[in-house]
Automatic annotation (TrEMBL):
The lineage of its organism: Bacteria, Pseudomonadati, Pseudomonadota, Gammaproteobacteria, Oceanospirillales. One of its GO terms (molecular function) is electron transfer activity. Keywords: Cell inner membrane, Cell membrane, Electron transport, Flavoprotein, FMN, Membrane, Phosphoprotein, Translocase, Transmembrane, Transmembrane helix, Transport. Its EC number is 7.-.-.-. Its main location: membrane. The complex is composed of six subunits: RnfA, RnfB, RnfC, RnfD, RnfE and RnfG. This is Ion-translocating oxidoreductase complex subunit G. It comes from Modicisalibacter ilicicola DSM 19980. Belongs to the RnfG family. One of its GO terms (cellular component) is plasma membrane. The gene is rnfG. GO terms for biological process: electron transport chain.
Length: 216
């Protein structure tokens, strides 16, 4: 092998090793980043679960109360989804339903609605959204306390026709310059209550007693 050929071969091997090492580093970085994203998301969801059903209303670990429910278009779930049962003294005291509305100003809005066994909202929290900063993002509890107003309400309080923003003749304030976002959230929360009312008996059953056929 001539010196030139030998030099080229060594260069090719070096480039190959560099590519392998670089790919490995990139892959590891991506893996670690993905794991961190998943961990952060799970931590955020766990915190939200605890916020929508206060500690005084349950004595179980809410994450352990996860159940699988069949597809529910009215909640924005075309496929089976996870909900959570809160328990107190061995009895199911509340259910936490995830809801996604596609009527946000800038895209989907995903939230959690906590509903006590008597049909009263225990709390609502937005999990994700892409609403306009300084306007629609006030649905986020870190930006304003607007979302807090749902706790204690039910399908009958206010009456069904009042489950709308004030601009539409309802009971809920909108945001200056951003009516679409609160309208979407109010509608999503109302649908969660309607879903609960339609399936209350089954939602308050222990997981082993609940079947897909019982919730349609």
């Amino acid at each position: 092998m001539s010196p030139l050929t030998h030099s080229i071969a060594r260069g090719a091997v070096g480039l190959g090793l560099f590519a392998i090492v670089t790919a490995g580093v990139v892959g590891l970085t991506h893996s670690l980043t993905f794991e961190r994203i998943v961990e952060n998301r799970l931590a955020s969801e766990y915190q939200a679960l605890e916020q929508v059903v206060p500690a005084a209303l349950h004595d179980n670990d809410l994450v352990d109360g996860a159940i699988t429910l069949p597809a529910a278009e009215m909640l924005g779930h075309p496929e089976a989804f996870t909900a959570w049962q809160a328990r107190q003294d061995g009895q199911i005291s509340a259910i936490i339903l995830p809801v996604t509305t596609r009527q946000g100003y800038s895209g989907d809005i995903s939230l959690l609605a906590g509903i006590a066994a008597d049909g009263t909202l225990t709390g609502v929290r937005v999990l994700s959204h892409r609403e306009t900063p300084g306007l629609g993002d006030k649905i986020d509890v870190r930006k304003s306390d607007w979302i807090e107003q749902f706790a204690g309400l039910s399908l009958g309080n206010p009456p069904p026709e009042r489950w709308a923003v004030k601009e539409d003749g309802g009971a809920f304030d909108a945001f200056t310059g951003a009516t679409v976002t609160p309208r979407a959230v109010v509608g999503a929360v109302q649908r969660s209550l309607e879903y609960f009312a339609a399936h209350r008996e089954r939602l308050l059953q222990a997981p082993e007693e609940t079947t897909d056929e019982s919730i349609q």
